Amino acid sequence: MSYSPDVTEATSAPASGLASALPDGRVLTDPDVMDAYARDRTFAPPGKPLGVVLAQSRDDVVATLRWASAHRVPVVPRGAGTGLAGGATAVDGCVVLSLARMTAIRELSPQDEIAVVEPGVITADLDRAARAHGLMYAPDPSSYEISTIGGNLATNAGGLRCVKYGVTRDSALGLEVVLADGRVLNTGRRTMKGVTGYDLTGLFVGSEGTLGVITAATLRLRRAPRELSTVAAEFTSLRDAAAAVAAIIAEGCQPSMLELLDRTTLRAIDDWKNIGLEPSTRAMLIAQAEGPADESAARMAELCAAASFVAVSSTPEEAAELVGVRRLAYPAKERLGQCLVEDVCVPRSALPEMITAIEETAARHGVLISTVAHAGDGNVHPVFVFDRGLAEPPPEVWAAADEVFRAALALGGTLTGEHGVGLLKKRWLGLETGPVAAELHQGIKQVFDPLNILNPGKAI
Hints:
Blueprint: H1 15-20, E1 27-28, H2 31-35, E2 51-54, H3 58-71, E3 75-78, E4 95-98, E5 105-109, E6 114-117, H4 123-131, E7 135-136, H5 149-155, H6 162-165, E8 172-178, E9 184-188, H7 200-204, E10 213-220, E11 222-223, E12 228-235, H8 238-251, E13 257-262, H9 263-273, E14 283-290, H10 293-303, E15 309-312, H11 316-327, H12 329-334, E16 338-341, E17 344-345, H13 351-365, E18 368-374, E19 379-386, H14 395-410, H15 426-448
Parallel strand pairs: 2-4, 3-4
Antiparallel strand pairs: 1-2, 5-6, 6-10, 7-11, 8-9, 8-10, 12-14, 12-15, 13-14, 13-18, 16-19, 17-19, 18-19
Helix pairs in contact: 8-13, 13-14
């Protein structure tokens, strides 16, 4: 499988010219140092950058894009490099534009319940800053302790609380964006409502750095719950666990978290952390509700009627420990081998069918698939595990992934709920969008980036 993007008329302008346009120390050209900025958390092989810019301000981004536009040099923006779709992978002859040093929380207004932040702010750091005022930043991807707000915006990241609070786009009120030619655009607002003009904020969120570079964001904060109750239920059947998810949603319990882990994932966690996994457990459901345990949490526990074991947290420490099991899922899987971490989303009513399709695909192709799900919103993460040392997944893994993607689309779902298209899913994109949407996407790209220098070869 090829990952080489098409770059329109790129030149090999010397990096010295870029360095002269920026303050001292902003541009790296040492190949060994640049390699650390050339890849994300996928296996997709990176190209060789011309240079790496360590931006510290909007002016640095403006200068970089003006220079790149003048010389038709591709620019690949990146945050912490935690992406799982190849979206921040360097292309040959590009400038990698790192925003990780832009870490200012410019404003945090408890009265308006908003924050204005730069793209390098770590997601969990913003949440902690908000909680000092009795607020929270709701989106919480599993990588929230290391991922940046800019990367979350670029991929429209989700997380464990999506079932109640939505994805990153639902918390993005306005953006400061530097366009491909260096012009600065401000989109959106700082009010809770506003319908003036087209929704450019929503367009940029999830565009994976192909339309502009986000240098600041006005984000909605929420009131932090005073009390949380967590339910953990173990099932002897993965399909029974998925059915319990459907029952909880149908009942209107309004969980703030509803996560599903399969046996393979649980076994990897148990081998690492010794969580006391029972031999008969095939799946675990972790649900959380805001409020006392005798209200929504108790009802969710009742709806897990097919569970072999159900526990409801009685202290904040117990609740945090149960949620901590879910956050161990990805690092535990990495201990098994190389991982193709995938991300499909289906209507919540179709979750049992999607889970069954994944299990059948794994058996048919003899592939190890470890599955977790943001089950409350139908977002399923099948992780295809293969041998270390391989340059990319073997053919049987790609065949299994192809079946899973097509199964999700057949159930009325989507190819990606939060990781983005990047490089890895481009060949399947047309199955979902169709020719009319593809034409419109290309037209939008042409308006914002006529020279095709912004993250070329990605997403569209």
